[in-house]
Amino acid sequence: LSMAKQMSSDKKDPLLSRDILMRASSESACFVLTRYPYLSAILLMIITGEQSKTTDLNERKYYIYVHVGLYFVSATLMAYNLFGLKKLFALVNVFHTIIVTCLEYEPSRHGEHIAIRLLIRNFGIIGCYLMVAGGLGETNEKLLPNKNLMSFGIRIIGAFSILSAVLIWNSKEELQIYLQALPTGTLLVYAIIFPLVICGVCIYSGYHVVLTCKVLTLLLLIITLIDFAHISSNFKQSISWVSIYVTCRHIPIMGALLLVNKSY
């Protein structure tokens, strides 16, 4: 009997460890996703401080204060679900990101490459916060998810994955970043581009969404590490802070992808 009990406990232990790991990853992803606007606000203030050393920002300072304030309010209400406004302010964050994207898309200021990078990654952020507004990461089982928002958000993330692959394929600056970071040259670059396209198509079409989201999370983690390696080797004050700001846009998208398994 004692041997049978020990064998049964040995069988349960891997399942228990897996449940603990899944719960920890879900809670971490939810933490990152709801509090990411804090990081956006901090980076925006750092970039503004760096730019103010060389540029007169009198005309822009008021709109910067408004954006920072919106980031802090959205993050606080989403993180703690104050007054039950988490979903509403996730939707507010979607519209805020759209406005920020329109205002920040200035190729003349930071270069066309960074502007397009920011545009594509903001597109992915819009998708992930649409999913939060639809009920992604919701702990209250009595509240039914909004399937329309969830479906629309996940399809945007699928399109974001395809656009990320297109950027690497078509942009010389983007391709050069990967060629510098990856030892075998173009072979490993293709090993990133083609899975991005496949993941995007699968997510957009709804084919094996949970598994594909896990693969896309891993790909985005690799891309983010490559970006940070490039930034650390080419640190040039304010322009690098802008690059950090753009690179960090992958963080909430990865958080949303990790939470997909609880909703599909």
UniProtKB/TrEMBL annotation:
GO BP annotations of the record are: positive regulation of canonical NF-kappaB signal transduction
Please name the source species.
Hydra vulgaris (Hydra)
Arranged from A to Z, the UniProt key words for this protein are: Membrane, Transmembrane, Transmembrane helix
PANTHER family (UniProt xref) = TRANSMEMBRANE PROTEIN 101
| Tree of life domain | Eukaryota
Transmembrane intervals: 62-82, 118-137, 149-169, 181-203, 209-229, 241-260
Indicate what this protein is called per its UniProt record: Transmembrane protein 101
